TrEMBL record:
It holds the Pfam family ODP. It comes from the Bacteria. It comes from Geotalea uraniireducens. CDD domains: flavodiiron_proteins_MBL-fold. The gene is roo. Transmembrane segments: none annotated. This is MBL fold metallo-hydrolase. SUPFAM superfamilies: Flavoproteins, Metallo-hydrolase/oxidoreductase. Residues 256-394 form the Flavodoxin-like domain. PANTHER family: ANAEROBIC NITRIC OXIDE REDUCTASE FLAVORUBREDOXIN (PTHR43717:SF1). InterPro entries: Flavodoxin/NO_synth, Flavoprotein-like_sf, Metallo-B-lactamas, ODP_dom, RibonucZ/Hydroxyglut_hydro, Rubredoxin-O_OxRdtase. In the N-terminal section; belongs to the zinc metallo-hydrolase group 3 family.
């Protein structure tokens, strides 16, 4: 895709990665983009670079606007590989450019490149850079989602460059929210925002709230939010700010996710009446078998629902490995404001359901106990008990949800 002007004199010069399906372990069924931006002013300024294997594409896009050797400043908002690993290619074309980067970013980037011949200036929150008619203001956003992360705000154009925050893994021929909502749908865009938040940003909810408040208190009103992945928010940047605020405040659907795995389908057989019980209380319910579902999708569905039931057979006294993997993954994301319970089939001593509860409590999540455990195959009576378990869990989810 060619350069696209997002505001007078400010161009998207990134690359669309239509083919990536595994983004450091997350499934990206729609691919992604690596967005970077070129500001044409007295001092031509590039905001971020792209993943190294897309450097040629980005350089071609820059060259369509201006000779890259004329770049005077390069702002690096985040040093992760997908945004900073073609910095050497840019610096080879514009060796006299000055790099603006946070202190932690500077230390990190030195692990990737020999920077001895590069001019680097470290910046912190509130620092500004005048590039001609425009002034750029920097705002550090540590741990959103890396220690070095920062936003760059163009005051005159009211464009906020936010690196990964507010991004989505969407490869598309469209660049803007309004275009994408027409070509695809608003629902798909929202789902991609939730997917990104759930898998990458879930641990940082409090920080997100603080940063949004800081952006507002500093008057960094954004007419355009330009992230480093996916669609640029120009029609309704407030929408994604509200979505982040809501998710950071614990917003979830009044629904239950059943997330399970099974060896011989007994735990799976239990999930059917449990789901019916949940439905009988009027709640939406989605059922996710872990080995049939990419991890990042299971995490997204967990995050969307107010309640989750974990189903696992016992294998060698403990949780089934795919269930343990899921719970370990979720624990790292430090979820809050979700109600949990567990069920499963076992043969002799059992152990999986107990361990599932231990894991949920270790995460600080509220639990509904006891869960339900059934030896080998569930009988019709067991299925009736599973139905009642589903009903009772759903009622408690409704009660818990009322607190939000
Ligand atoms: C390799 C293997 C190891 C197992 N280890 C245990 C165990 O340590 N404790 C236990 O209670 N059941 C154990 N079981 C029995 C299963 O938990 C039981 O077959 C259960 O019904 C399987 O549920 P599923 O059909 O949902 O996979 C084991 C089964 C297999 C195949
Ligand atoms: Fe990142
Ligand atoms: Fe990224």
């Amino acid at each position: 895709m060619k350069a696209v002007e997002i505001k007078d004199g400010i161009f998207w010069v990134g690359a669309v990665d239509w083919a990536v399906r595994d983004f450091h372990g997350y499934v990206t069924p729609r691919g992604t983009t690596y967005n970077n931006y070129l500001i044409m002013d007295e001092e031509i300024t590039l905001i971020d670079t792209v993943k190294y294997d897309f450097a040629d594409l980005a350089i071609k896009n820059i060259s369509g606007v201006v000779d890259p050797s004329r770049i005077k400043n390069v702002v690096i908002n985040h040093i992760e590989n997908d945004h900073a690993t073609s910095l050497d290619r840019i610096m080879a074309l514009a060796p006299n450019a000055t790099i603006y980067i946070s202190e932690k970013g500077k230390k990190g980037i030195e692990r990737f490149f020999d920077t001895s011949n590069w001019t680097m200036k470290t910046v912190k929150s509130g620092d500004t850079l005048t590039i001609g008619k425009r002034t750029l203001e920097f705002l550090e956003t540590p741990m959103l989602h890396w220690p070095d992360s920062m936003f760059t705000y163009c005051r005159e154009d009211k464009v906020l460059f936010t690196q990964d925050a507010f991004g989505q893994h969407i490869a598309s021929a469209t660049r803007f929210d309004d275009e994408f909502e027409k070509s695809d749908s608003a629902a798909e865009l929202e789902d991609s925002v939730i997917d990104y938040y759930a898998n990458i940003l879930m641990p940082f909810g409090q920080m997100i709230k603080n940063k949004i408040a800081e952006v507002q208190s500093k008057g960094l009103a954004a007419e355009i939010i330009a992230p480093d992945h996916g669609i640029i928010w120009r029609q309704n940047p407030q929408k994604v700010l509200d979505m982040y605020q809501d998710m950071a405040n614990g917003k979830a659907r009044l629904a239950v996710a059943i997330i399970y795995d099974t060896m011989w389908q007994s735990t799976e057989k239990m999930s059917v009446p449990i789901a019916e019980g949940i439905r009988a209380e009027g709640l939406d319910c989605r059922v996710i078998k872990l080995r049939a579902t990419p991890m990042s999708v299971a995490i997204k569905e967990f995050w969307k629902c107010r309640g989750t039931l974990i189903g696992s057979p016992t294998l060698n006294n403990i949780l089934y490995p795919s269930v343990a993997e899921f719970l370990t993954h979720v624990r790292g994301l430090r979820p809050k404001n979700r109600l949990t319970g567990a069920f499963g089939s076992y043969g002799w001593g059992g152990g999986a359901v107990k361990e599932a509860y231990e894991e949920c409590k270790r995460m600080g999540l509220q639990t509904v106990e006891p869960g339900i455990q059934i030896p080998y195959r569930p009988s019709p009576d067991d299925e009736a008990a599973c139905f009642e378990f589903g009903r009772s869990f759903a009622r408690q989810v409704i009660e818990y949800h009322a607190g939000f």
